């Protein structure tokens, strides 16, 4: 009579256990490294996007300021329009820089902060043109969170709409309603 050892005492069972253990360990290490790599790639992508935005917005404005400064130097008797353009471009660059910094700040992810920023912008642009602003938003949106890109795009869309109202409308009132 031959009595076989229980399967957990066999060599093939221990080999299988070791292989399974090593597979789990290596899978964990691989997933952890992959997660860290993806986080680094995402951070790099965000940094590249910010650098591109800064290069496009600020670089072009600085170039025009430089050109206008040179023209003002050479035509000192007619410098007033050039200096006015320099002043306008400088203000525009400051506004764009503030928008970029605001967009990348993580504390502004909450929609209530976006609404507050939008309301402030609308008042700053429209009130000097004697346009009354009525800004309302749905309360259910205050808990909403937006990613940096969505927040930036949403705000830029809003900003363009407000600027168009200020430039092209002959109205005396703007009603803004944001709902879900």
Provide a compact summary of the structure.
The radius of gyration is 29 Å and the shape is elongated. With 180 residues, it is mainly alpha-helical. The protein is built from four helices and two strands; from the N terminus they run αααβαβ.
Which sequence of strands runs across the widest sheet? 1-2
Annotation, overall tally of beta strands:
2
Question: Can you give the mean pLDDT?
Answer: 83
Low-confidence stretches: none
What's the overall geometry? elongated
Distance between the termini: 79 Å
Structure classification: mainly alpha
Secondary-structure element series? HHHEHE
* Rg, Å, rounded: 29 Å
User: What is the percentage of strand-forming residues?
Assistant: 5-15%
Which range best describes the helical content: under 10%, 10-25%, 25-40%, 40-55%, 55-70% or over 70%? over 70%
Largest sheet: 2 strands, parallel
Count of DSSP H/I helices: 4
């Amino acid at each position: 009579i031959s009595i076989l050892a229980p399967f957990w005492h066999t060599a093939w069972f221990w080999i299988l256990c070791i292989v399974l253990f090593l597979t789990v360990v290596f899978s964990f290490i691989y997933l952890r490294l992959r997660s860290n790599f993806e986080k680094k790639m995402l951070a790099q992508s965000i940094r590249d996007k910010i650098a591109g935005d800064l290069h496009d917005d600020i670089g072009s404005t600085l170039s025009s300021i430089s050109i206008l400064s040179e023209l003002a130097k050479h035509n000192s008797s007619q410098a007033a329009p050039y200096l006015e353009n320099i002043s306008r471009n400088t203000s525009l660059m400051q506004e764009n820089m503030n928008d970029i910094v605001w967009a990348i700040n993580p504390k502004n992810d909450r929609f209530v902060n976006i609404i507050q920023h939008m309301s402030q912008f609308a008042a700053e642009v429209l009130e000097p043109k004697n346009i009354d602003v009525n800004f309302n938003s749905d309360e259910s949106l205050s808990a909403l969170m937006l990613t940096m890109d969505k927040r930036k795009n949403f705000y830029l869309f809003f900003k363009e709409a407000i600027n168009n109202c200020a430039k092209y409308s002959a109205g005396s009132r703007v009603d803004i309603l944001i709902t879900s």
